[in-house]
Records
---
Amino acid sequence: MGKDYYQILGVQHNATDDEIKKAYRKMALKYHPDKNKDKNAEEIFKDVAEAYEVLSDKEKRGIYDRYGEQGLKGHFADASSNDSHGTYSMPHGFKAYTFHGDPFQTFSQVFGTGTPFAELFGSTGGTSRNGHFSMFDNFDGGFNANHDESPFMSFTNGLDRDHRAGLKQDPPLLKELYLSLEELYSGCTKRMKINRKVVNSMGQETRQEKVLEINVKRGWKEGTKITFPNEGDSFPNRKPADIIFVIKEKPHQTWKRDNNDLQYTVKVNLKEALLGTKVFAPIIAGGVKEITINEVIRPGYTYTIRGEGMPLPKNPNYRGDLVLKFDIDFPKHLSDHSKQLLRNALP
């Protein structure tokens, strides 16, 4: 006859993946040996893990539904088929299932820790029988008195959001995000599509596409990092890597950024440098500003237009400055007459 995995988890045969996962959480917490001291608890805990391993996997569940536990495990002489002709037609390439035998491994994959009760009930030591540290101090969900299931359910939902906090994490994945000065000035939303690999405990690989949304704030600078926790490739017994986007500024043909200020270079000839000139400076907010300069423009001279730079990241209502720098175009040749006029005019 074999084990009835649906009965073990207390779910209907048409239960959804979400219902199966919730049922596993409830039963696993109920019969976890660190909490339940009944002599049969450990065996039930193991059966619950095996039932979840089968019913949470589409292919294994399909074989089990058709041939039962014996057929799933390759014992066809003992298997009963629901096929109308009583024949056995296993999917090509399917290997007989064998439970790995470690229910704590399954628990850790779902909850992020193998021993949730050490800190919850005030015991000491902090390690479980499989050597994992209790990670319930990372819980951020809180108990929910109105939850329709065990109070431990809302507790473990916090662990789910913590993405298997007790496991070793892969190194972060860094991705550069290039933005224009206009985008960093105004702020914008960027949607980045990622394609991640997911490998289950049986070594089966799937690909998942996901769109990560980045809300670029006004005034962000190059080097700003935006972290999406645990969005990297997923492997058994490892915490997925964080994906970190690093802001990079695209080179701009008009301005150069210096912290919160913008720099704009004005080309002037020697006559303008000596006698003064009018400058039309483009503004990143739009339009231009006309500036009259009556001073002598010397090498290194700058002119500052207050409040026309980039927004301050921590207070975008305030802005840096627009700094005008000057590139003086000296003549390559002067006639003798011009030289004499300059000698007479200059001190």
---
Amino acid sequence: LDMSAVMPCSCAEWRRWIRPLVLVLYALLLVAVLPLCIWELQKDKVGTHSKAWFIAGVFVFLTIPISLWGILQHMVHYTQPELQKPIIRILWMVPIYSLDSWLALRYPSLAIYVDTCRECYEAYVIYNFLVFLLNFLSNQYPSLVMMLEVQQQQPHLPPLCCCPPWPMGEVLLFRCKLGVLQYTVVRPVTTVIALICQLCGVYDEANFSFRNAWSYLVIINNISQLFAMYCLVLLYRALKEELTPIRPVGKFLCVKLVVFVSFWQAVFIAFLVKVGVISDKHTWDWDSVEAVATGLQDFIICIEMFLAAIAHHYTFTYKPYVQEAEEGSCFDSFLAMWDFSDIRADVTEQVRHVGEFTMTESRKKIFDYQ
């Protein structure tokens, strides 16, 4: 029995109707949502908060189709799963950031909860960018560790330039992977702590004070994030020539700018609150000056994501993966986005590697002592 005849979706025909279908569904979504937005504006008598929410919504509904189109094109031309799976996960960052910020802007009391999704996905994106680089290198150079061993020794970058360099080869590769992976653990943990602190009334977001939890968590997240990005840069410098075919600089900048700009502008807005530029004198329709700071951050992100969607469309383009001879199933392409087995395997491998390294170092110290 020919299964392709029974399930036409697995044939090449699905490529013809999937894109028009998505466009029609998005048009129906606009028809349903726009009247609700207009009704909200009329109900609230067009206050400052509502105006900001409506303007941000315009950018959101311009951003989402650009991002979804790029994701859809990768699904249609899903010919290199080991490279396109992390790319699709990275492309989801923009619509997730955009929708999250828009909802948080409309419902400030829920901002801390919906932002949890955005902050966790941020770490996930950095990890997937590393996976993208390593998968490409592994395909091109099966003996990646041996190839690294013959590369020129890479010194540490400022501010770690005084530290002894990591040996080229397996040690460098392992430590760079571990450096990125630690952020994918630290960020969700600090996010859960932030939620607990919010429920206990000690979080106090956007207020620089060492009497609240927010300031400490910002410092921890910043150190963890900087070290993860540092490890990515160090790996890129070691394999710069080998990574040239995939043009990694533009891709790295797209990921780095979205992550860093959103983080540091939140810190800058909190600083404006601290020095009184944003004060209780002008809270517009928000309940507090902290809510104003959070709302301003969400509003800016909605605008920035429109620019990020355009950048991602050209930087993470599907065109290098177009191969008409390849006919994959649309279900396989869709389900691949939700397959996290590679992450579980990677985390398990790193934990095992850390355990082996710790045991080896312990034995060395015992023998040295004897």
---
Amino acid sequence: GTPTCILTDNGTHFTSQVTNKLFESLGVTHLYSTVYHPQTNGQIERFNATMDGKIAALCNERCTNWDEVLQFVTFNYNTSIHATTKQTPFEMMHGRQATLPFDQQHEIISLTQDPEHSRKIRTYLEKLVNEARNNIIKNQQQYKARYDLHRQD
């Protein structure tokens, strides 16, 4: 659905009247990150750096076909295990691993709405979220410990 709030940098494509009118018409609160302070938007900056490298690896020499490789790069990103969460974004979102082209396909598909199955999926997703949260906290503690090694406070 439509987000209720968007955080962007101060690039002209985000500060234009057209963008502001669009956000206003959708009822979206538009927040700006601090100028010359990329850490404010660090998560997306890291994501962009990752995607840039992957797109560049698949693009032609002049990078004119980036739009043709974007779907493959996005699928790769979403089905790769991330170091911090130790899980794939796809599984975190859908509660199951993605079916890859080379995976064996099952011929029997059940579309029943079994309440027990729904409960199991909900429990499994809660478990994934808790594991991801614990992995994120552990990762943050490691970053803090590494940072504190060089502090003289």
---
Amino acid sequence: MATLNLRNIYIIPSKTALGLLSIIALLFLLGINFQNSLVYIISFWLLALLLLNIFYTWRNLAGLTLTAVGIEPCFAGEKAVLEVELSRPTPYAKYALELTWEDAMQVQIDLISTQTARIKLSHSTQQRGRFTPPRLKISTRYPTGLALAWAYVHLDIHGVVYPAPVEKAFQAQGESYGDNSESGLEITGGTNDFGGIRDYQYGDAPKRVHWAKFAQTGKLYTKTFVDYASHEVWLDWETLPMPGIEVRLSHLCRKVLECHQEQRQYGLKLPGKVIAPDKGDAHKARCLQALALFGLAND
């Protein structure tokens, strides 16, 4: 959070203001030369307007508070989106506020009828890891453009940039991507799910006999049941044959996305870190963050 005040707001006159100041100086000299009180009044009146305009330009920024709400995670090469909240504790409305990165997009906003407003700013990313947004510039030329006031704000917030996923991930031998059973591996002789019927064999329990079928055909049949073992997929760093840390991370990133889309339970094995099999959005975020911060200090 950062609040704008006398210590961090800079202000300079525009070229138009400098031209006006030259005219005021010329009028003042003419007033001295001709001892003309009307010229004095006009020159001082213009100077007062210029100074008043500079004050209002400064006040348009003074008291503003900027708070970083959050940074949405993204993949390397995409734009990281930072949400910022602007608030004005003073009763004065704020007009024509411009927010820019040092080298990127510009957003203009007014705070008139509301005390707070939220805006989103995007910034390009090049590599995985922690993303720290550069300093943010907020400026204004309100009300007349005769002065420019600005301040630089460093927001104490960090985001995560995931590795860029490859288009198609390598599939190691033994991985269960091709299994058609949504429930997992079928285990015969189970007790939970109905699996079909077979001919009655001596010794079958009476409760397993399909009596409805016996009433229809006059022949004894036995009901069979199956259980399903959950398919837990392990995404293992060591099973990837390709060289290069970033290439492996990109393949594992794609596998995480595929397993999440197929709603499989999957775990992640990295050198020095193991994430137990699970599924869901939170699990996907944990795995992607582990890939993003792999090998970085204080990961």
